[in-house]
Amino acid sequence: MTQKKNGEKEKREIEKSGIRNKIKNAGAVFAAIMTIVSATACGLPFQDDLSSAEDAQPPERADTGFVLTGPDSFDSADTAILTGRDEKENTLTFLNLDLGRRYTLSVNGTTRLYDKYGNGLSMEQFRIGDIVDVTFLKSQKHLTTMQLSASAWSYTDVSRYELNVARSQVTIGENIYELTENTQYLSGDKAIEIMDLNPSDVLSFQGIDTDVLTVRVDKGHGYLRLVNDENFVGGWIEIGQTQIQKITEDMLLTVPEGSYEVNISNKGGGGVKTVVINRNEETCLDIGDLEIPEPQYGMVLFSLNPSDTKLYIDGEPADTSEPVSLEYGLHQLIAKADGYHSITQYIRVGQASAGIDIVLDALEEGETESTSSSETTSTQTATGYYKIYVDAPENVEIYLDGNYIGISPCSFKKTAGSHTITLRKTGYVTRSYTVQIDEEEKDLTLSFADMVPTEGTVVNTTSANTSSANTSSANTSSSNTSSQE
């Protein structure tokens, strides 16, 4: 009996213990749930708090002056002309087109360079004078991107153009463009003046709309002097296909740079020599070894249409009613008639008899006769007895269209038209200028910039004479009538 009671008591104790454990576990779960609910409740504001959060303003930011920049960062953009490059300082200089002001920006490995189509370029593929679109950080004076401007046009290797400084215009083909105060003139990457350009130069042009912003000399000019030419004065010199001119004493010819065959002729004699002309350099050609045989003559019969055409041979009127006796060699012909285009051409006489037909083209209604550059040189008429005076710089050799005039100050007869005036002095860089002489019946005085010494020449600067040029009567211009590339 006692054993049975003890068993029942143990059973009840076990049951109580299980109940207590269940209650304890349930309490722990409840406490955990309440903790979660409490934590969640703490994270949710009341409705009033939500309203105040929506109305609250963001905190004010203080300007510390610090800007976080990256490779693409920029705060300014511009279309400009690339005018300078300093490889040592890693900087580029640009000319702003609106204000005409220059500014300099640094470049580094993060600067990106493109052509006008967005393709990548290297720095070496950009040239001074290029028109570019740039972005940059003005605050740090750093160039972000540089791209050849898509709004810019360009002409290269142009040999057919007319440059008129008086009107600030250049004609390329049939198009007329304006020269501006921002226009850059370059020989290679070196800045020059507009008066340094010569009609024989081959040029490149860049611009936007109708404005020319860069003029670059692609192929410049040098100078040719004949040595021991006494037997050929009065004869002719042919320089490649570029020019033909009568030989005068001490002449100095302006010639496009390049290699040429030079044909010298006089009284049936002469010969051909090869010469190389370098930019801005003087080349001497010795023709003392060329011989002149006994004069030989040929009879030339001219047929002219219209019949009243006037013919000039070597500048002198010719009677074409019968064959004309001409010395062997080169001769210049100029044919003129009212209502017709005049022509200038050259013939070479080398046989006993020959016949030449000359036919002039009639002018169209309302059309006026124009004088070509080759005719102008040979048939200009002097405007009275008025003179051109060259007074500066002093003690310099002066040449007019390749012909020696004298030592400045000097003068020569005023002749309307376009002329090339060349200045030469030992120890100095030879310079040539193209001037447009007007038809006004008055004297004209020209003054040019002081000459620049050649490298290694020591100059006494106290002897330099500076004079201002009379630009009201002399208009500088450059024209070239060869074919456009």
Written overview of the protein:
The strands form 7 sheets. Strands 7, 8, 9, 10, 11, 12, 13, 29, 30, 32, 33 and 35 form a 12-stranded mixed β-sheet that branches. This protein has 3 helices and 35 strands. The N terminus and C terminus are likely disordered. The longest helix is centred in the N-terminal third of the chain and has 42 residues. With 485 residues, the chain is mainly beta. 23% of the residues are buried.
SSE inventory with pairings:
Layout: H1 2-43, H2 47-55, E1 76-86, E2 91-96, E3 102-106, E4 112-114, E5 131-137, E6 142-148, E7 152-158, E8 160-164, E9 169-172, E10 175-187, E11 190-191, E12 202-208, E13 211-219, E14 221-227, E15 236-239, E16 243-246, E17 252-256, E18 258-266, E19 269-277, E20 282-286, E21 297-305, E22 310-313, E23 316-317, E24 324-327, E25 329-336, E26 343-349, E27 353-359, H3 373-379, E28 382-392, E29 397-400, E30 403-407, E31 410-415, E32 417-424, E33 431-437, E34 444-447, E35 474-481
Parallel strand pairs: 4-6, 10-13, 14-20, 21-27, 28-34
Antiparallel strand pairs: 1-2, 1-5, 2-3, 5-6, 7-12, 8-9, 8-35, 9-10, 10-11, 12-13, 14-17, 15-16, 15-18, 18-19, 21-24, 22-23, 22-25, 25-26, 28-31, 29-30, 29-32, 32-33, 33-35
